[in-house]
Amino acid sequence: MGMIGGGPGAFIGPVHRIAAELDREIELVAGAFSSDAGRSRAAAEAYRIDPERGYPDVAAMLEAERARPDGIDFVSVVTPNHNHLASAKAALAAGVPVISDKPMTATLDEARELAAVLGRTPVPYALTFTYTGYPLVREMRERIAAGALGTIRKVVVEYPQGWLAGEAEGKQAEWRVDPARAGAGGCIGDIGVHAFNLAEFVTGLAVTEVLPDLAAVVPGRALDDDCTVLLRFQGGARGVLLASQIEVGELNGLRIRVYGETGGMIWRQESPNAFTWHRLDGTTELVRAGDASLGENATALTRIPGGHPEGYLEAFANLYRDFATVLRGGRAPMLPGLTEGLRSMVFIDTCVRASAEGACWTELTL
Amino acid sequence: MGMIGGGPGAFIGPVHRIAAELDREIELVAGAFSSDAGRSRAAAEAYRIDPERGYPDVAAMLEAERARPDGIDFVSVVTPNHNHLASAKAALAAGVPVISDKPMTATLDEARELAAVLGRTPVPYALTFTYTGYPLVREMRERIAAGALGTIRKVVVEYPQGWLAGEAEGKQAEWRVDPARAGAGGCIGDIGVHAFNLAEFVTGLAVTEVLPDLAAVVPGRALDDDCTVLLRFQGGARGVLLASQIEVGELNGLRIRVYGETGGMIWRQESPNAFTWHRLDGTTELVRAGDASLGENATALTRIPGGHPEGYLEAFANLYRDFATVLRGGRAPMLPGLTEGLRSMVFIDTCVRASAEGACWTELTL
Amino acid sequence: MGMIGGGPGAFIGPVHRIAAELDREIELVAGAFSSDAGRSRAAAEAYRIDPERGYPDVAAMLEAERARPDGIDFVSVVTPNHNHLASAKAALAAGVPVISDKPMTATLDEARELAAVLGRTPVPYALTFTYTGYPLVREMRERIAAGALGTIRKVVVEYPQGWLAGEAEGKQAEWRVDPARAGAGGCIGDIGVHAFNLAEFVTGLAVTEVLPDLAAVVPGRALDDDCTVLLRFQGGARGVLLASQIEVGELNGLRIRVYGETGGMIWRQESPNAFTWHRLDGTTELVRAGDASLGENATALTRIPGGHPEGYLEAFANLYRDFATVLRGGRAPMLPGLTEGLRSMVFIDTCVRASAEGACWTELTL
Amino acid sequence: MGMIGGGPGAFIGPVHRIAAELDREIELVAGAFSSDAGRSRAAAEAYRIDPERGYPDVAAMLEAERARPDGIDFVSVVTPNHNHLASAKAALAAGVPVISDKPMTATLDEARELAAVLGRTPVPYALTFTYTGYPLVREMRERIAAGALGTIRKVVVEYPQGWLAGEAEGKQAEWRVDPARAGAGGCIGDIGVHAFNLAEFVTGLAVTEVLPDLAAVVPGRALDDDCTVLLRFQGGARGVLLASQIEVGELNGLRIRVYGETGGMIWRQESPNAFTWHRLDGTTELVRAGDASLGENATALTRIPGGHPEGYLEAFANLYRDFATVLRGGRAPMLPGLTEGLRSMVFIDTCVRASAEGACWTELTL
Fold it and tell me: Which three-class secondary structure state does DSSP give residue B338?
C-alpha cells in the first residue's frame, strides 16, 4: 500500500495504516505523505519505512513504484478533501486501485468527474465509510434485509460532537472549517455524511428527499457546524438526521434507531458491540458480539471473543479486509464505493444548497 | 378535591388521585367521574369515597359540594381533551380553582376562549405538564438560568413511544386517534406538546418558529402518530423536537439535551434521578438526586434519600404540592398554568396546520 | 392504621405513611409517634390527623383506639430497632395486627421471643422487606421458580452505600451506629439483611451456611460498616453477599445476579423496572415493566404504563397492598412475615458472632 | 519477534501478533508455532511469514534466528501454561528477551525456578497482564497514587464469565479445564489472577492475606470454575475478588471498584474508555478517554480521539509498546514482569491450596 497524505500531524493517516495492516494482508511500504519533499521523507521514517519511498508527489510515487518489483499494489487517499479527486484520478489513470477516505471529493462536480472516470475503468475503487465496518452494524443490515423489522417506517440517525464548540484550533480543526480545503460542507460533509451513509447502509433504502436545516453557529465560521436534515426514503419511510460539532461534551456519539412495522433496532457507536432489538410483541433482545445467533458475516469480522471490546480501529480494518478481498478478485458486497460516494456527495451538495436557499423539501437527484 | 373524569378504565384519573394525595395535603372526596350516573357512583365506590359524592355531571357536583361544609376546594380535570374547556369553564364560573390535565383544551379556539375567561377571574388555574415536576428537571432549569451553559445554542428534545405502532386497541388508544375526542393533534398533542413544554421550561426560552413534519404512519389513522418539528428559540437557539408513537419498543423515553456556549446537559425520564453536565473544559459531572450540590428546590421535592428511585408519580405529586401552595396563598413559580397552556395550544395548532399545508418555517403567534 | 414511631425527623415514618395510603385501601389515623406527649401531638398535626390521636405511648393508643368506633385496624411499627419487640408485643397482645419495619427485633433473643408470641396467636404480622415489593423482583422469583434458570448455582447480591463513609451525622446516622439502639449489627442489620432476604426471596432457596467478614472501618465506630458474607444455599448453590456503608459515592445500589445451569438474571434497584435474562444459548432478553410477557403478579403491581418510572415508594406500597389483602382475609404469599423475620435475625446474629470469633464457615441454625 | 505457540486454532497467538504490530515498532517474523513441524510451517504461512521461519521447536528457532542478520530480537510466549517455563528458560538462556502470556508458569515451583533464572540475568522479561494496558486503568492508578481517594479502604474486583457453564468444548476450553495443561488453578489461574493483578496495579497496594472459596461447579470438572476470594491489603484495606466461568451470559465483565476515605472510582472493561470518580462531597465526575484532564500517560496511550472506542487489542498493544521501549533501553515502569508474575503465582497457589484444605485466612508468602 502507498499512502497519499497522512504526513506529520495527521490524525487519519496513522488510523488507515493501523487498519490496513491489522490483519497482515496489507503493508504500508510507500507514500506521498506531504507535498514537501523533506516532510514526506520524514513521514516515511516515522512510519518506519524506507525514506526513499517517501515521495514528494503522487506522480513520483506512482512512477517509481511501478518500476519496482515490490512496488505498491494500491493507494490509500487520506488527504484533506480538496485533494481527493486529483489523487484518485492520478492513481486510476496509472491503473492503480484506490481506497479513499470519505467524502469522495470536495464538491459534487468533482465527484461526477471521478464517477465518469470510474465508469471507464475496471480498476477497483473503495471509500472508507468506517462505521459500515462494525460487525454489529452489518448484522443489523442483514437482519433488516431479512425482514426482522417488517417494512421500515422511521429512521433516526445522529452524529453529535462537541469539539468545534469553541474556536477551531489545531490542524484537524482548521481545515475542516475552511471551505477551500473542506469543500462546501462543514459538519454535513465531515460527519453528517457518515450518518447519511449509515442510514442507507443499515436500512438498504435510498434517501429520496431532504429538508436540511444547516447553520454556522459559532460566530465567524464560514461552514456549517450544526445540521438537522429531515429525510424521506424510497417506499415512504420517514427519517431525521442530526449532526453537530457544537454540542459540548459529545465525543463521537454516532447512533441509529430504525423502526419498522414489527420491530425496532438501536445501535450506538460508543457501545458498538451490541444492539437492541425490540419486537412488536413487547419483548426486547440484546444482541451482542460473540452471540451464537449472529450471522456468518458478523462472526467473521469479530477477531476476539465477545466481551473483549473491539472498536473503531477494528471496524476500520474490516473495510481494508474487504478491499484486500476485492484486490484478490473476490467479492465484498458491503464495501462502499462509487455508488455510495456519489450518493453522499449529492446529499452534501443538496443539503448545502437547499439550506442556503431556505428551500423546503428537495429531491436528491443523482 | 373533586375530580372531573377519571371513571372506570381511565388511566390518568388514578394517577391524579395518587399524585394529589401523596403528601396528604389534598384528599379526593368527590367526582363527576362519568356522564353515566351509575358509572359515576361506581367509580366513587372504587375510589372508596362516599357514593353520594359520585355525581352524574359537573354542574351537579359543583352545586352539591358548594352546599356542604366539607365541600371540595378545587377540581381536577382528567377527561379526554374535548371536555377540558367545558369542565374548566364550569368550575371557574363557580369560583372553584382548576387543575387540569394537558392539553389545555382540544383546539386553539377553545384555548383562547378559556384564556379569556381566565383573564377575567383571579381563580387559580394550573396544568399538569408532569415532567416539569421532576426535581432534576427543575435543577437543570435553575442551573441553566444561572448561566451554567452560557448562551443556549441547541436543544434536542425527544419523546419516543411505540404503543400505537399496531392497531389502536383499548380505551386509552382509541380516543387518542379520534379527532372528535383528541382534537386536531394526535401524537403532537398527546406527547409532542410535553416535549415542547419541557424544552421551554428547561431553557427558559420561548420557541418562536417551527417547521413541522407530521404524519399518520399507520394506515387508516386520521391523526398524526409521528412528528418531527424543527425549532427556533428567542435569541436564535436552534432546536429539534422528535415525538412518535410508532417507534416499536420505545416506552416513554422522554429526554432532553441542551447545549450552550460553555456546556451541555442531558436528562432522560427513564432514569430521572440524574443528569449529565458536560463542561467546555472537557470534564463531565453526573448530578444525582440527593447530592449536596443540589439547590433548595430540587432538595425540597425529593422525598427519600438519593438512590431510592423516585419516579413519575412523585413528579406528578410535586405539581399538586405546588398547587396546594397556591391554594394556600403561596407562590409556586414553576407550576405551569395559563401561559404554558396557551403556548402549547398555539404550538399544536401551528404544527398541525403548517404540516397539512406543507409549509416551511412558520411563526408561533400567540 | 396507627403508627408507632415516625415522629419528627424520622425518615421511614413518612415513607410508611405514603406507602400505606398510596392505593387508598389504608389511612393513617393515629399514632404513638414519640414517647414525648407534646412531640407526638405535634407529629399528628404534621401528618394532618386529629392531634388527640397523637398518643404518648403504645398502650394509650391501643386503649383509646379500641374504644372508638372508627379506631385503628392495625399498627405499623417504624421505631428504631430496639423498640420493635415491645411495640409488636403490645399490639399483638391487644389482638391488633402488626406490620413492622425490618429487622424483626434488635436481637435474636428478642426475635425468638416474638416468634413464640406469634406462634400462639392468629393475629397477622408482616415485615416490610421493601425490595420484595418491586414487580420485577417478583417476576424474577416466579420465573426462577418455574425453572427459567435451571438449578441455581450461584448468587451474587450487593447493597453498596457510601453515606457513612465520613462521620455519622444526623438522626438517621446516629442511631444506626449505636449498639444500644440498632442492635448487634450495624451495616449487616441495616442493609445486609435486605440483601440476604432478597437472595432467599428471589431464588426460593434458604441459606444454610455463612462465612462472614465484617468490620467497623471508620475509626471509632462500634458497629460494622462494611460486610462481606460468603453463602451456601440449600442444594449447594454458592453465593456472595456484599454490603457496605463506606463505599463513597454509592447511594442505594442494591442488586442481585442469579445464575443457574441454563441461564442468568440480573436486577438493579437503581433501575428497578427491568431485568436482564441471559440464556445458555447466548441470547439475552431485556424484560421490562409493562411487557406483555410479564406474569399476573407483576402486572397487577404496576400502576402506570411501562416507561413511566415507578420506584421505591410504589414497591413499598405493594407490601401494604398485600397486608390489606391479608387483613381482608385474603392470601398474600409473597408478603414477608415471621419466617423471613426470624431467618434474617439468625443471619444477623450468626454473622456478627462468627465474625467476632474469626470463625470460618458457620451454619445458620433457626 | 518470534512467537512460541500460537499455532492453528489458537486464540491468543493472533491477538499477540496484532498487538505487537499495531504501532509498527515490532514485526512477527518467525515462530515455533507448534511442536509438529508441518503445522508450524503451515502456521507461518497463515501468518504470511516465510515458511522456513516456522520452526518445529524453540531450540531450532533460537539457533537459526541467531544465525540470521535479520533474526528475531525477542520471543513472545503464547503456549498453554505448562510450556511457559521451558519456553522462557530456553530463550533467556540464549540471551533473548521474553514477553510471556500470563500466568508466569503452570505452578508456583516453576515460577520460583524462573524467578531464580531471572535473578541471574539482565535479559528483559515481561508478562502481558493485558488489562493494565488500558489508558483509563493507568489513569486511575496515577490518580489514586496521587491521593485522589485518600487512604484506600475497600476494593471489589470482579471477573465474571459464562462460557464454561456448559460442557467445555473446543480447544480453548479443553486445556483450561485440564490440570496437566492449565496447572493447579482453573478459573483462578485463567481470570482470577487478572483480577488480582488489576487490584494490586490500580491501588498500588499488595495483597497480604486471602480467604479463598473455590469450587468446580460443573459436574465432573477437575479444576475450579467459580471463585470468591476475600482479601486484605497492606495497610489494612479490605477486599473481595469474584471470578467465575459459569455465570451464564457474562462475557468478559472485568471490573473494579476502589473506595478510599475521600472518594471512590469505578471502571468496567466492557466500557473501558471511561471511569466514574465519586468524591466525598457528593459530586461525581465521569472521566473519559480524550479528556484534557487526563495525565500524559493515558493521553500517550490513546491512539484516536475520544469517543472512537478503543478496546482490548489497543490495550494489549500498549504492553508491547512498553516492551519495545524497554528493548530500546528505555523505562516502562507500569509494564508487568517478574514481580507481578511471581506474586500472581503465589496468589494462585495459595488460593488453590487453602481452598482445598478448607483453610480460613491465609497469608500470601512470596
Answer: helix
Provide the grid cell at C256.
442481585
pLDDT score at B173: 77
φ, ψ for residue D362 (rounded to 5)? -135, 135
**Residue D183 in this model has a pLDDT that exceeds 80:** no
In the predicted model, residues of chain A with pLDDT beneath 70 are 169, 171
- Rounded Cα distance, B312 and B315, in Å: 5
Q: In chain A, which residues have their Cβ closer than 8 Å to the Cβ of B247?
A: 154, 257, 259, 264
Residues C179 and C198 sit within 8 Å (Cβ to Cβ): no
pLDDT of residue A309: 86
Cell of C336: 414477608
For B2-128, CATH number out of 3.40.30.10, 3.90.1150.10, 3.40.50.720, 3.30.505.50 equals: 3.40.50.720
CATH class of C134-304+337-357: alpha beta
Report yes or no: B8 and B46 within 8 Å, Cβ to Cβ. yes
Beta-carbon separation of C311 and B308 below 8 A:
yes
Q: Do B276 and D286 touch (CB under 8 A)?
A: yes
Tell me which CATH code domain D134-298+337-357 carries: 3.30.360.10
| Across C37-41, average pLDDT | 95
Mutate: best of A277, A283, A299, partner C, most C CBs <10 A? A283
Please say if the pLDDT value at position C308 is more than 80: yes
**A311 has a chain D CB within 8 A of its CB:** yes
DSSP 8-state symbol, D359:
-
What is the count of residue pairs from C and D with beta carbons less than 8 Å apart?
112
Closest CA to C299 of C290, C286, C310: C290
A169 touches chain B (CB under 8 A): no
Give me the CATH code for the A134-299+338-357 domain, please.
3.30.360.10
> In this structure, how many other beta carbons lie within 10 angstroms of the beta carbon of residue B66?
12
User: What is the assigned CATH class of domain B135-304+338-357?
Assistant: alpha beta
> Looking at chain C, which subunits does it touch, using at least 3 CB pairs closer than 8 Å as the criterion?
A, B, D
Say how far apart CA B61 and CA A24 lie, in whole Å.
82
Q: What is the CA radius of gyration of chain D?
A: 20
ipTM of this complex? 0.94
> Is C302 at the interface with chain B, CB within 8 A?
no
CA distance D33 to B106: 76
Instruction: Map out the domains of chain A as residue ranges.
Output: 2-128, 134-299+338-357
Give the count of beta carbons closer than 10 Å to the beta carbon of residue B357: 9
Which residues in chain D are contacts of C359 at CB distance < 8 A?
360
3-state secondary structure B105-118: CCCHHHHHHHHHHH
Using CA atoms, how far apart are residues C227 and C223, in angstroms rounded to an integer?
11
d(CA D268, CA D257): 9
> Hey, which chains touch B, using 3+ CB pairs under 8 Å?
A, C, D
Q: How confident is the model at residue B100 (pLDDT cuts 50, 70, 90)?
A: very high
Task: Count Cα neighbours of D73 within 13 Å in the Cβ-side half-sphere.
Answer: 12
- Interface check B145 vs A, CB under 8 A: no
D209 — pLDDT class (breaks 50, 70, 90): very high
Q: Alpha-carbon distance C138 to C301, whole Å?
A: 9
The partner residue sitting opposite B309, judged by closest CB among C269, C288, C306, is: C269
A24–D contact, CB cutoff 8 A: yes
∠ CA D157-D161-D164, rounded to 5°? 140
**Contacts (Cβ under 8 Å, ≥6 apart) of D122:** none
> How remote is the C-alpha of C18 from its chain's centroid?
16
Predicted local distance difference test score (pLDDT) of residue D121? 96
Q: Is B146 on the interface with D (CB under 8 A)?
A: no
Residue C203 in this model has a pLDDT that exceeds 90: yes
Cβ of B250 under 8 Å from any chain C Cβ?
Answer: yes
